[in-house]
Design brief:
The structure is a single chain. The protein contains three helices and four strands. The protein is α+β, with helices and mostly antiparallel strands. It has one domain. It has a four-stranded mixed β-sheet with strand order 3-2-1-4, covered by helices on one side. Strand 1 and strand 2 form a beta hairpin. The mean pLDDT is 93.
């Protein structure tokens, strides 16, 4: 799966990491209602992508399967990116 973090770049995330990303995505979606836990939930999702994914070279043009907000995104910006499946498709 190719994941783009806005303003940062793309990562190739292995299939075995997607389940964990979905769990963190669910936690982030729940945190949208709690301003105190939102920053940590967003950071956990982005950190997991960075840790499990391989950074793609900026010169490599690959369509992203998932686009995640930047680390400094607001609750409203994250809500605008949500689909019925959250940010990460099941």
């Amino acid at each position: 799966m190719i994941v783009r973090i806005m303003g940062e770049g793309q990562y190739e995330v292995p299939a075995d990491a997607v389940e964990r990303l979905n769990e963190l995505d669910d936690a982030l979606e729940a945190a949208l209602e709690d301003q105190q836990s939102f920053p940590a939930a967003l950071a956990a999702l982005l950190d997991s992508v960075r840790a499990s994914g391989q950074v793609l070279d900026d010169a490599e043009l690959v369509t992203s399967d998932v686009v995640l907000p930047a680390a400094e995104a607001t609750v409203d910006e994250v809500r605008a990116l949500l689909t019925d499946e959250g940010l990460i498709p099941d």
